[in-house]
């Protein structure tokens, strides 16, 4: 029987898959939204009303907007309570550290393999040169007849 954490990972994977299935339709299509009516309305507003009903998209703080969007998607699409956010962040941090450890381990293995291969190659080249020199020492060079 699998340990408990495998079952919880399967549960997480199913939730991620369900969320991606919901979002797939919207993320794989090209959407064009026309806002001619909105532009016309904005142009007709008085300066006072423009301040009161502010909707100039050029002034949107996209960092804040995306942060709120992600939190909303997490809460309303994935059905995760906001109270679970600190725990999720802690888990994400652990996974990030584990990922970096695995990457460093793989790089070290690659370096070790390269070093080992380099030793084999240089040893083979040294053997060829030593053999060639030994065979040349055993031959005599004939000078003009």
TrEMBL record:
One of its GO terms (cellular component) is peroxisome. Transmembrane segments: none annotated. One of its GO terms (biological process) is long-chain fatty-acyl-CoA metabolic process. Pfam families: Sterile. GO terms for molecular function: alcohol-forming very long-chain fatty acyl-CoA reductase activity. Residues 8-80 form the Fatty acyl-CoA reductase C-terminal domain. PANTHER family: FATTY ACYL-COA REDUCTASE, MALE STERILITY PROTEIN 2-RELATED. This is Fatty acyl-CoA reductase C-terminal domain-containing protein. It comes from Anopheles melas.
């Amino acid at each position: 029987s699998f340990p408990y954490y495998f079952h919880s990972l399967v549960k997480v994977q199913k939730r991620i898959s369900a969320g991606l299935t919901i979002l797939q339709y919207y993320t794989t299509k090209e959407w064009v939204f026309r806002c001619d009516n909105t532009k016309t309305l904005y142009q007709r507003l008085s300066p006072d009303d423009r301040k009161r009903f502010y909707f100039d998209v050029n002034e949107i703080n996209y960092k804040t907007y995306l942060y709120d969007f992600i939190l909303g998607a997490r809460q309303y699409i994935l059905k995760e309570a906001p109270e679970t956010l600190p725990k999720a962040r802690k888990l994400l941090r652990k996974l990030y550290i584990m990922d970096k450890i695995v990457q460093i381990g793989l790089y070290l293995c690659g370096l070790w393999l390269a070093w080992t291969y380099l030793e084999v190659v240089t040893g083979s080249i040294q053997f060829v040169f030593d053999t060639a020199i030994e065979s040349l020492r055993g031959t005599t060079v004939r000078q003009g007849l």
